[in-house]
């Protein structure tokens, strides 16, 4: 399968609505997601490609859905940025900030937990962690170099604390979440001289321009195809809308393969590792909710999709947050209408495994490949995985 690489440069703040009602009869204030879901990006790109290849026949729709679209990921000055890992904790007391990693910790005598599996462990802070002050906010996006360093440090202490979630120079390796741009729209009644009923509303878009600079965050993706629409992808340089309100962006084919390769430091660490971390760069969709369907529901053992050769991983712990809702609207003729709501594992979630059989180096070629259960979810860009290592706490 050939891989192509696409960059999106927004012309306007882009709208990524959440699922709450918005319309003339259901609400006049739009609410934004904090970041773009993979289905929003992949759906917009498929619409662009469908128009460029002559329409949306049944055969074309099937070919579009078969494209393996990975992303979108944030890119600034040719550096990838990933959502902050949820196994990172920062405590702030005055001007001091201390950063630690959560790691699975063995229970002591007389201790117990009610986790949903007999072999699962709680994730704990290291002994001696300075927890003076409150848990602090941290920058929402980490550069690829910061993330590789985080994933290859097996221990849980000794980190430089990331800044809070306010705009900082990209040179620090951290980015804040994009600010939301609110715009008020109205249409005046010629007769009354006031806003028409239902025509006074507020939209919310994600502004990817960095404050006080000329820099702008781009979105990048990797597209795998088997030859269909190859010429269109290779010549892609077009303005096309993405998201709500038909906000415009420039879509362009690039040569970004190096951005999607596993860093050498991570590959070297995995080659000799028996304790493996799985980090989700995009939200995950699994048959078992938070539990990947490729893991046995009783023993929590299994092998990620796309790997052969007898690799066997056993789940030991998970760091995640509350599930996120996913909904949408199908434009296919056979299923036109609202899609069923689903629950996603948030981006940044971390799964801790032990490698009980096989070689963890087999995971290196699966860097930034999807670990979702359903093929269509993998084709839509959900569940892109980075891999790292960890050591157990000895509390």
UniProtKB/TrEMBL annotation:
It holds the Pfam family Cas_Cmr3. The gene is cmr3. This is CRISPR-associated protein, Cmr3 family. InterPro entries: CRISPR-assoc_protein_Cmr3 (IPR019117). The lineage of its organism: Bacteria, Pseudomonadati, Pseudomonadota, Gammaproteobacteria, Cellvibrionales.
């Amino acid at each position: 399968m050939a891989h192509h690489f696409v960059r999106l440069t927004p012309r306007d703040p882009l709208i990524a609505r959440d699922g709450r009602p918005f319309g003339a009869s259901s609400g006049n204030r739009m609410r934004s997601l904090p970041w773009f879901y993979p289905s929003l990006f992949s759906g917009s790109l498929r619409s662009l490609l469908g128009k460029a290849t002559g329409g949306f026949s049944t055969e074309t729709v099937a070919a579009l859905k078969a494209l393996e679209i990975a992303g979108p990921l944030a890119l600034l000055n040719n550096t990838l940025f990933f959502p902050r890992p949820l196994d990172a904790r920062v405590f702030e007391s005055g001007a001091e900030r201390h950063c630690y990693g959560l790691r699975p910790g063995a229970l002591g005598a007389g201790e117990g937990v009610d986790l949903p599996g007999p072999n699962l462990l709680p994730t704990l802070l290291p002994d001696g962690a300075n927890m003076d002050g409150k848990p602090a906010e941290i920058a929402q996006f980490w550069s690829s170099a910061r993330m590789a360093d985080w994933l290859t440090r097996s221990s849980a202490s000794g980190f430089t604390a990331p800044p809070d979630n306010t705009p900082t120079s990209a040179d620090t390796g951290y980015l804040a979440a994009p600010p939301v741009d609110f715009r008020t729209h109205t249409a005046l009644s010629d007769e009354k001289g006031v806003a028409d009923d239902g025509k006074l509303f507020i939209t919310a878009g994600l502004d990817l321009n960095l404050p006080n600079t000329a820099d702008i965050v781009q979105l990048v993706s990797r597209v795998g195809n088997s030859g269909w629409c190859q010429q269109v992808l290779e010549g892609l340089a077009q303005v096309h809308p993405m998201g709500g309100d038909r906000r415009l962006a420039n879509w362009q084919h690039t040569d970004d393969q190096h951005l999607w390769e596993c860093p050498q430091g991570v590959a070297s660490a995995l080659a000799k590792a028996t304790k493996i971390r799985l980090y989700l760069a995009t939200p995950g969709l699994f048959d078992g909710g938070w539990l990947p369907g490729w893991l046995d529901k009783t023993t929590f053992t299994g092998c990620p999709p796309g790997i052969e050769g007898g690799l066997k991983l056993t789940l030991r712990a998970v760091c995640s947050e509350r599930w996120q809702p996913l909904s949408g609207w199908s434009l296919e003729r056979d299923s036109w209408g609202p899609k069923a709501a689903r629950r996603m594992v948030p981006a940044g979630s971390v799964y801790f495994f032990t490698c009980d059989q096989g070689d963890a180096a087999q995971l290196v070629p699966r860097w930034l490949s999807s670990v979702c259960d359903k093929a269509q979810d993998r084709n839509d860009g959900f569940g892109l995985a980075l891999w790292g290592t960890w050591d157990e706490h000895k509390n």
